[in-house]
Amino acid sequence: MAELSVQWKHEGFSHDAGRRDSDEVEGTAADSVHTGVLTDEHQEVTDGRPVLVEDVTERVYRAADLPPDTRVIVPDVTAVRRAMIDKAKQAGFTIVPR
Q: How far is Cα 62 from Cα 70, in angstroms, rounded to an integer?
């Protein structure tokens, strides 16, 4: 089973692009950090492409499901993990070392 524990992070964003007062903006642009596993063996995987499975909710994410500029943070990059990381990059994930 190809599985790698990771974190992923994206900068906060708002769906309201209109002009707002600073009181309304405060606290709405907080970064979001999630933990989970990057795996290519899950019931949602039918094409061999890796997915992220969130620890808390067990929600499954493909690269296209994540907000723009989401970075997947992997622990030490070793030869064993390299194949999974390369496969995730090919699937569209942005991978960065811890």
A: 12
Q: Nearest Cα to 5, choosing from 49, 53, 46, 48?
A: 53
- Give residue-wise pLDDT tens across range 67-96: 888 999 998 778 878 889 999 999 999 999
Q: Model's pTM, two decimal places?
A: 0.75
CA of 4: how far to CAs of 7, 22, 83, in Å?
10, 40, 11
Nearest partner of 70 among 12, 15, 10, 30, judged by Cα: 10
Alpha-carbon 64 to chain mean position: 10
Backbone angles phi, psi at 17, to 5 degrees: -90, 0
Could you count the other beta carbons within 10 Å of the beta carbon of residue 7?
A: 15
Nearest Cα residue to 31 out of 64, 58, 71 = 71
Helices marked H in 1-98 = 22-25, 79-90
